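Entry details:
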Amino acid sequence: MIQTLRRFPNPRLTGLGGGLFCAGLMFTLGFLVSLLFGSSLTVYGVLFVPVSVLTAVWMRRGDLLTAPIIVPIAFATGLVPVADSSGGTSGRLMGLFTALATQAGWLYAGTLAAGIIALVRRIRLVRSRSR
């Protein structure tokens, strides 16, 4: 069992690296969702939660508190290809704002998951340093 866990990747991302990872992955997933599922915002939201968890788990110890900040920005970045884009620039912006408003539950769930993971990891780090 332990050998199986050691085969999984265990990168440590800096704050900038975590932001690039999360935003790039969400933009790619948003593009794939728009191609495969016809811009389904629910599928996009469901995919957002594990990405936010991975981002929080893979953050470096010193940059842990940036994870809950990075994740909502990446959510909005990934919505660009998924949101309704009819009617030029104003239509694209309106579709983006509408998608942000209607998918706030997924945004909150992913941000909360990243925040709880970062907070628990930070508490464990402080406790281990005090020993």
About this structure: The chain has six helices and no strands. The longest helix spans residues 104-130. The chain has one domain: 11-130. Residues 11-130 form one domain.
